[in-house]
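Recap quiz, item 2
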Amino acid sequence: MLSNSKRSLVLSVVVGILAVMPVLASAGEWQYNMTEGVTSISKDVYDLHMLIFYICCVIGILVFGVMFVSMFLHRKSRGAVASQFHESLTLELLWTAVPAIILIAMAFPATSTLKDMYDSDDPEIDILVTGHQWKWRYDYQGTEVSFFSNLSTPSAQIDNEQEKGQHYLLEVDEPLVIPTNTKVRFLVTAADVIHSWWVPDLAVKRDAIPGYTNAAWTYVEKEGVYRGQCAELCGKDHGFMPIEVHVVSKAKYAEWLAGKAAQAAEVKAASSKTFSFDELYSGGETLYATNCAACHGGNGEGGVGPAIKGSKIATGGITDHLDMVINGSPNNPMMAAYGEQLDPVSLAKIITFQRNAFGNNMGDSVQPLDIVTYKQGQ
Amino acid sequence: MAHGPAKGFTRWLFTTNHKDIGSMYLWFSFTMFFLGGIFALVIRAELFEPGLQIVKPEFFNQMTTMHGLIMVFGAVMPAFVGLANWMIPMMIGAPDMALPRMNNWSFWILPFAFALLTSTFFMAGGAPNFGWTFYAPLSTTYAPDTVTFFIFGVHIIGISSIMGAINIIATILNMRAPGMTLMKMPLFVWTWLITAYLLIAVMPVLAGVVTMMLMDIHFGTSFFDAAGGGDPVLFQHIFWFFGHPEVYIMILPAFGIVSAIIPTFARKPLFGYSSMVYATASIAFLSFIVWAHHMFTVGMPLVAEAAFMYATMLIAIPTGVKVFNWVTTMWKGSMTFETPMLFSIAFVILFTIGGFSGLMLAIAPADFQYHDTYFVVAHFHYVLVPGAIFSITAAVYYWLPKWCGNMYDEALGKTHFWLAFAGLNITFFPMHFSGLAGMPRRIPDYNPLWADWNMISSVGAFLFGAAQLLFLVIVIKTIMGGRKATARVWEGSHGLEWTVPSPAPYHTFTTPPEIK
């Protein structure tokens, strides 16, 4: 006969198992393991992960097995009488030596994968990856192509006003594009604090550290979209700076790169163009949302940063406003020097917008040429 | 001349009695445990489902940072010092700690340190928000102004720890009863002796690194500022040179506690006493040469990366020896399963699981996928919660009858155990899965891919929190009354602390006992 307390224990275990049954049934759809990824390195890493996991399982079954047998057999309630043995040199040596041998055996494949990961020599393409609070910048070395990659998930989804999409928080406005069957090297650095560039499917994770340029590489055979996130706490919006890598055929890549280069040339040319107030203002509205709103608020009401609405700078002299946006704040490093980050057209649009939006109504505007002249004058 | 405690509040303010100071440490730790726990529940509530619901990202970062700082420096470390104060003199047959006035001071500066630290919540800029590891330059150039309060708080905590450690070493080396040779000391005394040396070695390193931050922030130096020729990675090397031994500071005394409890309830001497001592010393030594395994992704050269990987894998050997010894102690014993034993067995099983994930993390190439994900969060909570928290809980149940003279309610104790055990596993086991599936740590919002695991974790966290409220009730209830405890308390207990009456008199071993 089971005692009362034991019966209730058995009952609660049964109820517990029944309760998790539906969860287990749907477990097939849940991702619970590391991705195998799409590169030879990521597959090696996955194999290492599974190997060490299985080793742990075997050791665990042995150790816990002995423990459970002991807890079942050697209990006082079964009349067990305690032995008094308390040492054995043979046992101590045995359970020192056996794990040591397992570990040495494990060190070989681990070292060989590590070597491969570090072999970033002779790349066909070099991309400079720069972490900024809170976006990534990609510079294709040897070309004019350079752009920022911002989170594109609408804030309405984050604030639960809209249904969340499949790639919620893992989608960007401008993805990184690389070709298949090409050794691509990432030169990873940061402009402000430490970030970490991580794409699980490529098994690439490299810290982006100001003052350092870390190298990582990949070679992808399969076309596709691979997503990742910043993996090092970098401040307020650390959770909101994803990475999206599009791997396309070499032909498509060449086409994309040419398009991007043409765009860059266009932007350069546009710096000498004169824009109407409306063009500047409406363009500025979108740029404000991606570049400024995180700190200064969607309606210029302020947040981590000061309010734009009625601010001294946005409603004061144009030169001070240019200085603040182009060179950043001397007192607060959070206000970065946007002169390095954005092209003159975008800067002109943003400043014009800030001076006239949120009831600032200054009525003036800034042309790209003003930006160029200001920067040259410094 | 035997005399009792002074009356009123000044008893606690001016006390130099190791038992009074031990109790104050333990209550302080318990308070901080609940404060840090509340922060954890804010985190889990926000992560219950995707989207931002309860807190803003900037406050979320303050929660993760303060949860870590409070739990490490406010809950776990003071609890172990409290246990050391209570038990070490009684275990070695000493009348008190060697340096009783310093003992008073090392406790009483702690509340001020934490007042300084938590007062930042009410200041402009908010509390520290750069993670408990406070990597520069996020914690220097980009930190809120309140970082200075954090720095001075850490200084005071460090002074407190160093004084506590000096006291413990002085006590153990000088005040053992005649005949109590080093290799006759209870393992709790041994593990604390080694822990105290670790503290003296690394707390000054922590003080150094926060002082360098202070200089960077206020005096224009550039230790960690790349723009001034400084090096952000240097910060991490110094921090983890402190940080890794710190991890063992939080676990070695736990090894000592469990090595006292398991033999008691297995009614069988500890298996492999001397190998336990050597294993503890080996772990302490290894803790100084593995720090960079926290930094596998910073871009160290291949040779350094491999060397730190091998050194880290080595830790599995002495740790394994300990686990095997505990299991063999249980083998052919005559076991009963009172609450302290339940917590100790759970410690062995769950700490071993944490050890397994630690071994996985040691494999550097795989660590590139694990690093800074929830897999790491799962790993260190599996070593710290069952490791430090469960062992402290076990110690409280084990020695509380000796402290207050009353037995706790066994049924309530077991209920507490099972709730905490379930809560812990429901909270932290799913984090292995969300981490492997790619969820980074320290994010306030996430893709719905990880929603199910997070929801389970959050439910478990509230269960675990509730279980600790029950613990508080049990402790208070036991202090207020209950069945009277005998001097021996447990059938299988051995050691000097069980030769004095329960509750232990205000002064014990004023004449040293004779050890055969």
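Chain B touches chain A through 90 residues (CB under 8 Å).
Chain B has a mean pLDDT of 96.
End of item.
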